[in-house]
Amino acid sequence: MKPLWAAALACAALPACADELPGFAAGADVVVLGEIHDNPGHHQRQAELIVQIGPAAVVFEMLTPEQAGTINSMGQADPEAIDWAESGWPDFALYAPVFAATEGLQHYGAMLPRPLVRRAFAEPPEQLFAAIWQGDGPPPDFGLADHLPEVEQAEREAGQMASHCDALPPEILPGFVAAQRLRDAALAGEALRALAETGGPVVVIAGNGHAREDWGVPALLARLPDAPQVASLGQFEGEAAEADAPFDATALSPPTPRDDPCRAFRD
Questions:
Q1: I want to staple 195 with a disulfide (CB 3.0 to 4.6 A). Which of 121, 200, 223, 246 is the partner?
Q2: How far apart are CA 45 and CA 49, in angstroms?
Q3: Strand, helix or coil at 247?
Q4: For residue 16, what pLDDT is reported?
Q5: Res. 169 pLDDT band, cuts 50 70 90
Q6: 13: pLDDT confidence band, cut at 50, 70 and 90?
Q7: CA 98 to chain centre
């Protein structure tokens, strides 16, 4: 059974919180910390774990390489300097604990330009990934050229349809899956580059979908001949995690009040 805990959020100092957390990531080269993007408890827990893990580098789904470079040059994350307000991500205050915990560490950004992601609807994602790979040598083989098993393809398409309020034309669902695979590869590639450049360990901050051990970043890294050791955390809301959730560990936080994202489609 996957380990499960609900970490206390009322901590006066992050190091004190870290002492209370389990060592599911002990010995891992790469630790993928999932999240629901607008849940503040998830970001507080990520910050606590970063303090506990003591990584050399952190890869963010939310940062472009340029934004990460700005943070590295300044030594801290300034929301105005990285133009966070225009990024489309939730308010910077939600991520402030994470950036406070990563101050002074090497930051890497895996956020891809939207025009590039849209190209994955019509162009081979393995070619797009090869074009953005910044590491030494040829790009790693993450299997982007392989067709997914029918069951997995169908499950991924159903997930994309559900997350878009059942409002997508079915014929474009394969493009959304290809784009997601490209984003997974971008995160895995930056994690691999960060590990090579810093010696690790490396923490990856990303949505739960990217943290899945069956087809997210952990699965892509596991394909490599010299695969790094990877641990993943999925974070959920409410009183129970998903049954058989595909993570090494899961954690719970109180639900975040939010507007119905599908209301506009129904109206």
A1: 200
A2: 6
A3: coil
A4: 34
A5: very high
A6: very low
A7: 13
pLDDT tens sequence across 217-253: 999 999 999 999 999 999 999 876 676 789 999 999 9
Q: What's the rounded mean pLDDT across residues 28-41?
A: 97
Helices (H), the chain: 14-18, 40-53, 65-74, 92-101, 114-119, 125-132, 150-163, 173-198, 208-211, 217-222, 263-266
Sole residue written with tokens 């960060």: 194
Asked if residue 234 lies in contact with residue 241, where contact means CB atoms within 8 angstroms, the answer is yes
Q: CA dist 94 to 47, 100, 191, 254, 255, Å?
A: 11, 11, 23, 15, 14
Indicate the pTM of the whole model.
0.91
Concatenated DSSP letters of 73-92: HHTS--TTTTTGGGSSSSPH
DSSP letters for 199-242:
---EEEE--HHHH-TTTSHHHHHHTSTTPPPEEEEEEEESS-PP
What's the CA gap between 233 and 218, in Å, rounded?
Answer: 11
* Residue type present at position 250: T
> Quick one: which of 183, 172, 244 has its CA closest to 209?
183
